[in-house]
Amino acid sequence: MIFLRYSNTFIEANCYILADETQRKALVVDPGAGARDWVKNSLAARDLQLSAVLCTHGHGDHVWDSAAVAGKIPVYIPEPDLYRLESPAQFTGSFSQLFVQYSGSEWVRPDNPLALPKEFYEADGAEIVPGISFAAIAAPGHSEGSSVFTLEGNIAPDPEAAPAPEGSFGTALMLSGDVLFRDGVGRTDLPGSDPEAAKRSLRNLAQVIPPTTIFFPGHGHSSTMGRELRRSPFLKQALA
């Protein structure tokens, strides 16, 4: 599986490209401010065709370049955060012009924004682009719609491949957005955040995500669920 990462964006938000090596149909995850050129060039260099965009949640640093990247292609987002695609700038306060500076443009609403279908939240999930299937788990707290996405696969070697943490193994992967970071979690003091919901979400993930699962967050480096269960004070507090 092609699985690329780019973080030279505003607030160093990670943007990912996933694609099956045979099907060559790409999914772009979280195209934040400054991601558009990288996405365009990376797809062209690997002869990939964009088939969908997925935003893990609706904050500006994860959605700002979604219209420029997607064009007429669907931009999926968890339903509770769909409203945020109307005008994420209203939630960015004094940072609004920095988003414009990194992106090169004001906010543009995607042409085809869609709530992620409920079938992705069912046990086995669904295929979002040919060859790439995942299951979504609602994990509100950082935002109303924050979700994580689990999938299986071996990451193909590539100079821009998303790096797995040292000592990790297996094929269980997760895109964690801003729900869970290596040594941290997303803020819960923003409009629409809920600290108690975030604790419940972390408690649920600790119970349902296998420890060997390698997760790729919205900011920072990858980790495993097991490492965070051992070391994260946020998970320990949620489980107390």
Which stretches are poorly predicted, pLDDT < 50 over at least 5 residues? none
Mean pLDDT level: 96
Distance between the termini: 37 Å
At the fold tier of CATH, the topology name is: Metallo-beta-lactamase, Chain A
Name the CATH class: Alpha Beta
Strand order of the largest sheet: 1-2-3-4-5-6
Biggest sheet architecture? 6 strands, mixed
Corresponding CATH architecture: 4-Layer Sandwich
Estimate the global geometry from the Cα principal axes: globular
Strand content: 15-25%
Number of domains as seen in the coordinates? 1
| Run of helices and strands | EEEHEHHEHEEEEEHEEHH
Structural class: alpha/beta
- What Rg is obtained from the alpha carbons, in whole angstroms? 16 Å
CATH homolog superfamily: Ribonuclease Z/Hydroxyacylglutathione hydrolase-like
Binned, the helix content reads 10-25%
Number of helices: 7
Q: What's the β-strand tally?
A: 12
List keywords for this structure.
single chain; 240 residues; alpha/beta; Metallo-beta-lactamase, Chain A; 6-stranded mixed beta sheet; 12 strands; globular; zinc; Metallo-B-lactamas; hydrolase; metal-binding; hydrolase activity
